[in-house]
Amino acid sequence: MIKKWKHESAIEKHTKAIKSNPLDYRAYTNRGNAYLRKGIYDLAIADYTRAVEINPSSYLSWNNRGNAYAAAGEFDHALADYDRAIELAPNNGMAFNNRGFTLTLMGRYEEAERDLGKSLELNPNNIYVLNSMGELCAARGKAEEACAWLTKAIEHGYNNWSYLRTSKTYDNIRNSACFQEIIKSGS
């Protein structure tokens, strides 16, 4: 209930900011973030689109629209947005991580590994990249490698236990002893 209220409050706040200044691309990006968290992908995409129309050099708007497209299952659109985000901020590893994760979902594992490796090179302790590496290994059916990456992510502060318990990305290794042990440790 608190999260729902928090997202509604953010939507209201950023809607007011947009009414006050219709060219505030940050307000569109922030409202898009709230819609994305609520799972309202079409409105998130619309807000990010408006943000990049106002400020085409906003790395974050391109990256986040890619996240919304990926969440909506529109992987080709997501990849195009991550490509643009990488062009704008080649030293920010999150777009590499997000593109790598999307490539994993698409079954394009070699490309995913290259992107995730680049993201790790830019930020070796990023918990999301460490988890994405675990998900890539899980998709490949490599339980021990997946668990090693996931353990490293948890050691660095990753704690989204709900995601780990339900994400389809870990289905290939869900019954492995190492994954079961990790899940038990988070209970």
Structure description:
This protein is mainly alpha-helical and 187 residues long. The protein is 76% helix and 0% strand. The chain has helices spanning 2-20, 25-38, 41-54, 59-71, 75-88, 93-105, 109-122, 127-139, 143-155, 161-166, 177-185. α4 (59-71) packs antiparallel against α5 (75-88). It is globular and about 55 Å long. The two termini are 22 Å apart.
SSE layout:
Layout: H1 2-20, H2 25-38, H3 41-54, H4 59-71, H5 75-88, H6 93-105, H7 109-122, H8 127-139, H9 143-155, H10 161-166, H11 177-185
Helix pairs in contact: 1-2, 2-3, 2-4, 3-4, 4-5, 4-6, 5-6, 6-7, 6-8, 7-8, 8-9
User: Between the first and last Cα atoms, what is the distance in angstroms?
Assistant: 22 Å
User: Proportion of β residues?
Assistant: under 5%
The proportion of residues forming helix, as a percent range, comes to over 70%
What is the tally of beta strands?
Answer: 0
Average pLDDT, to the nearest integer?
95
Can you count the helices? Answer: 11
Q: What would you call the structural class?
A: mainly alpha
The 3D shape can be described as globular
Secondary-structure element string: HHHHHHHHHHH
- Cα radius of gyration in angstroms: 17 Å
So what's the oligomer here? Answer: single chain
Short key terms for the protein model shown above:
single chain, 187 residues, mainly alpha, 11 helices
Structure, briefly:
By secondary structure, the protein is mainly alpha-helical.
